[in-house]
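Lab notebook, design round three. We kept the backbone fixed and only want residue identities now. Task for the bench partner: fill in a sequence for the structure below.
Input C-alpha cells:
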C-alpha cells in the first residue's frame, strides 16, 4: 500500500533541524507495553492470590484498590513499594518473567537512526532501576542511550514539573531543542508544561491492540513513523 493509514493527528513531520536532544520514554514507547500489562494484571494477582490463599478475583480486587490509591505518583512505579504492599519480591518476578519483555516494531531502527545522526539520545523513564535494568539487559538496547534518567532519582514522576526541573539541572539540555515521545498523556502534559520543544504521543504502545485515538497531542503509531531523520 502506497499510503498506509495514519493517526488522524499525525500532523506535520518533526522539524529535525531544531532537535539536538531526543528524549524517549521506555515502556509503551520503545518497549511493548503488553509485558507490563500482563505482569501487573495477570502474574502479580496470580502470585498474590497464591501467597494469601485468595481467589484470583479477590486478589485482583484487593490490588486494584491499591493501584488506584497511588496512580500517577512515584510509588505506582516503584518495585519496592509494591513488594511492601504485596509481600512478593517484585524485582525477582521481573527477572523470572524477563523473556516476555519485547521491543515495539521499528523502535530499534529509530534508536539506531538517531544515534547515527549524532544527536543525543536519552531515556527518560518512570521505571524503577530494578525494572529498567532487567528490561534493557534483556532487550540489549542500553548501548543506544547516552543517559538513562529515572524519575526515582528525582523523587518525582515524569508527570510532575519537579521531575523536569531536577532532570534539567542534573543533565543540562536546551528544552526548545529537545524532542520527547511518550505514550502517557499525563506525562506528555508534564513535558509540554515544562516547555519541551517538540512532542509526540505514541498511539500504539501495545502490540496487538488497536490504535488509540489521541486528540490532545500530535500522535504517531510508533517511533518508526518519525523516520527518516534529516
Ligand atoms: Mg510509557
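Proposed sequence:
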Amino acid at each position: 500500500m502506497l499510503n498506509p493509514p495514519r493517526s488522524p493527528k499525525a500532523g506535520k513531520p518533526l522539524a529535525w533541524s531544531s532537535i539536538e536532544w531526543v528524549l524517549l520514554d521506555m515502556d509503551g514507547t520503545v518497549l511493548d507495553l503488553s509485558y507490563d500489562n500482563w505482569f501487573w494484571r495477570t502474574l502479580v494477582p496470580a502470585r498474590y492470590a497464591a501467597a494469601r490463599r485468595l481467589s484470583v478475583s479477590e486478589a485482583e480486587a484487593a490490588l486494584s484498590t491499591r493501584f488506584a490509591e497511588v496512580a500517577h505518583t512515584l510509588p505506582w512505579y516503584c518495585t519496592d513499594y509494591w513488594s511492601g504492599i504485596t509481600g512478593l519480591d517484585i524485582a525477582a518476578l521481573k527477572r523470572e518473567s524477563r523473556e516476555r519483555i519485547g521491543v515495539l516494531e521499528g523502535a530499534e531502527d529509530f534508536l539506531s537512526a538517531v544515534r547515527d545522526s549524532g544527536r543525543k539520545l536519552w531515556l527518560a523513564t518512570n521505571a524503577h532501576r530494578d525494572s529498567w535494568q532487567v528490561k534493557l539487559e534483556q532487550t540489549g538496547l542500553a548501548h543506544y542511550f547516552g543517559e538513562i534518567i529515572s524519575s526515582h532519582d528525582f523523587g518525582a514522576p515524569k508527570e510532575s514539573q519537579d521531575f523536569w526541573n531536577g532532570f534539567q539541572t542534573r543533565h543540562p539540555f536546551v528544552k526548545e531543542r529537545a524532542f520527547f515521545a511518550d505514550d502517557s498523556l499525563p506525562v506528555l502534559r508534564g513535558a509540554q508544561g515544562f516547555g519541551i520543544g517538540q512532542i509526540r504521543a505514541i498511539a500504539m504502545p501495545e502490540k496487538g491492540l488497536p490504535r488509540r485515538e489521541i486528540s490532545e497531542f500530535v500522535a504517531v503509531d510508533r517511533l518508526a513513523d518519525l523516520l527518516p531523520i534529516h
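Keep this in mind before ordering anything: Residues 35-99 form one domain.
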